[in-house]
Amino acid sequence: MSANIVIGADRSGAPVRIDVEELLATRLLVQGNSGSGKSHLLRRLLEESASIVQQVVIDPEGDFVTLADAFGHVVVDGSAYDGAEIAKLAARIRKHRASVILTLDGLELEAQMRCAAVFLNTLFDAPRDEWYPALVVVDEAQMFAPAAAGDVSDEVRRLSLSAMTNLMCRGRKRGLAGVIATQRLAKLAKNVAAEASNFLMGRTFLDIDMARAADLLGMERRQAETIRDLERGHFLGLGPAIARRPVGVRIADVQTRARNVIQGLMPLPNAGGAEMESILLSEPLAMEPPPRPPEPELVVPESGELLEQIEGYVPASEQVEPPVAPSLFEAEETAASIASILTEMAAETDCTFQPAAQLYQDFTVRCRMLRILPGMDLGAFRRRFAMAVAGIADDKASEWQDLLRIGKDVPDDLLAPFLTLARAAVDGAPCPDDERLAEIYGTRSSGRIRRLLEHLEKSNLIVVRTDYGGRRSVGIPALGLTTAPVEA
């Protein structure tokens, strides 16, 4: 399914969209000089996709913390916690799918790189069952993945660069989709930039950056000059999630603004000349400046409190009020809708080869589109989806209760092939061949299917028979039924 968001309009005024689901698989690189509108573009992307996918923002300047007020993001102040606490927070964020902003503006550059590396590595190392889809937005990415050694130690540079490389090169299979923004492509490590398949290129002036941007966009070198002429907030976009050919886009307005940013000019004070001199020299100059008035103390939650906040986090996309006292008809209608969604998903090509977390995210989005509550967690979904793959979408149907009772103790990853075999026995249908079982099990290996059947037989769940003609049939002892034979 597709989840498109509008980021702006082209020259003719037609909307330019980004396919968020495609973006999760292909990643995004944003480039533009300071003042070209990169942060505005990232803010638009985050605002429009906040209700669709989990978001993790690495924010070195504290520009995006205002998203918390409008969209419920959890703000994590990197300067308030040590490395162990940052790792615990990141692990909890991955588990509970919390959208967060890791703000690093209170740290020096080396500390920022170390903190971001610990945070990203923990997200990357999450257990397989927690590989939920998430956009990981890194602003000023050249700080965390520098192309050359700078003012930081080699140890910190390697640590940070390794984390960014994992995010962009290997993060896709773990549900992490990198969205990186940089002022200069020349300052960004090439192996990090090269993994992005989508590009939004803003104004830049240096020849080396224009040439690299033109190469990425598939433009001729003589066309690179157009990148220099782009206006603020205008970008050239290309990629499978945006457009197949370079398209100009003017980024649309946003709902939130960065803190303490003065837009435009301010009127100068009326005092001037002698009057301003008298104001400045009205009191004797002290050897030391007078102490500043105390600033309001920023309350930073303890790590334990923040962990509790993350555990109780409900994604914006799932903040739906449950129906009040639903009638029996409504409950039956909801169950039928869920069964229909599961049937549709199970019929899609290669659905069993996708991670369970990604399938569950797809399932919850489909439920929201029908304005119903999913009514199950990831563990329950895995079993219901396995049933749907076996052709049993309705877990309340009376004809399947004996079969489901037997499958209650079957491990989640083996349930779909076992139920497929058991249903064939109930229907008296031919035994599924190795190719069909491999598709259901989510593998291309026939050897794994042979080991699967051996494991099920050793667990006393099935009995495999092969006659003298080489035809295989499978019996289900608990049901006293056998499939029809088929060529093995």
In short:
It contains 19 helices and 15 strands.
Characterization of this structure:
With 488 residues, the protein is α/β, with parallel strands linked by helices. It folds into 3 domains: 4-260 and 301-311, 3-Layer(aba) Sandwich (Rossmann fold), CATH 3.40.50; 334-396, no CATH class; 405-488, Arc Repressor Mutant, subunit A (Orthogonal Bundle), CATH 1.10.10. It has 19 helices and 15 strands. It has helices at residues 20-26, 38-49, 67-71, 83-96, 109-124, 141-144, 154-170, 190-193, 207-217, 225-228, 274-280, 303-311, 328-347, 356-369, 378-389, 401-407, 412-427, 434-441, 446-458, and strands at residues 4-9, 15-19, 28-31, 54-59, 74-77, 100-103, 134-138, 176-182, 198-201, 234-239, 243-251, 463-466, 471-476, 481-482, 486-487. Strands 2-1-11-10-9-3-8-7-4-6-5 form an 11-stranded mixed β-sheet. Strands 12, 13, 14 and 15 form a 4-stranded antiparallel β-sheet that branches. A hairpin with a 5-residue loop joins strand 1 and strand 2. Helix 5 (109-124) runs parallel beside helix 7 (154-170), helix 13 crosses helix 14 (356-369) and helix 18 (434-441) packs across helix 19 (446-458). Residues 320-329 have low confidence and may be disordered. It comes from Novosphingobium taihuense. This is Helicase HerA central domain-containing protein.
Helix content: 40-55%
CATH homologous superfamily classification of the largest domain: P-loop containing nucleotide triphosphate hydrolases
Determine the CATH topology of the largest domain.
Answer: Rossmann fold
- Indicate the overall shape: elongated
Strand fraction equals 15-25%
Note the gap between the termini. Answer: 36 Å
Per DSSP, the total helix count is 19
Query: Rg from C-alpha positions?
Result: 28 Å
CATH class of the largest domain: Alpha Beta
Count of discrete domains: 3
Low-confidence stretches: 320-329
Mean pLDDT: 83
> Main beta sheet, described?
11 strands, mixed
- Spatially, the strands of the biggest sheet line up as 2-1-11-10-9-3-8-7-4-6-5
Annotation, overall tally of beta strands: 15
Q: Which secondary-structure class do the elements indicate?
A: alpha/beta
The appropriate CATH architecture of the largest domain is 3-Layer(aba) Sandwich
